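Subgroup meeting minutes
Present: P.N., E.W., G.H.
Scribe: E.W.

1. P.N. recapped why we're keeping a running log of single-chain structure predictions: easier to compare across weeks, and new members can see raw inputs and outputs side by side.
2. G.H. added today's entry (302 aa).
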Amino acid sequence: MEEVLRFYYASPRDPIGMQGDFYTSADLDPIFGYLLAKQFSEWAADFDAFTLVELGAGKGLLARDILQHCRLPYLILERSPAMRARQEQLLKNHDVEWVDELPIGLTGCIFSNEFFDALPVHRVVRRAGVLKEIYVDADFAEIEGELQEQINAPLGEGHIADINLEARHWIRQIAASLDRGYHLAIDYGYLRDEFYAQPRGTLMCYWHHQAVEDPYLRIGEQDITAHVNFSDLIEEGTDASLETVRFTTQMDYLIGLGILDEIAKLANAGDAASMARLVKVKNLILPGSMGERFKVLVQTKR
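Output recorded in log:
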């Protein structure tokens, strides 16, 4: 899965956006970046210096929108050379630094929007009371074998789960990087009980904005993703000295940052452009859309 994702994001075809396979909150409207900039500015007011580090910045839209509203040192950690090239082109007029690893002794915020869901996962299944890992042979047929990593998953017989060990590794890295400040993760996912209540796991593919259940179709040409187990991020973070201060829906989080006031401004403007924006902005908080599917995790280190 890791190799397939690396190939996918290295494609000359931009996979993100309305013309790609999926879109993010930043693709809908700049208001998403504006509200996050508002949050970062509030946090930064409590420190003498404050640096932002974005993990997996996509096309760079979120970075652009944030930097238009707050002037803080901005780093991007991007593993895909193709995506980094797109970011560099979009952000050429902004003061941004690209890094290959997280800095040490950081005061600031390490944040991401749809980063953890794009990490490769281990698929496991319980057979006769024993956890097995699902592998793929040279003909792309699934086979089941022994676990290669230590994995504990409270699965029912025959149930599958997608275990993101790399997410746990990233949380430890984030904790080690931060001296003081925040970790903010926005993604779709569940807490433990709901995560393991999905009998077939959560692995899903997207191609031209169509959900595809078969990951062996169009290999390297469609997005592969899995829901985040936020309980893992919370517990791993606690073990690594990160304190969880908030876990909520994107709807509640953005309402707290003032999105309803921005919606009212668009509605009162009444012009065609504002009405078009209004339709997109509402998707950020609608319960049946991104509002409840996406969760927001805020952790701090003091």
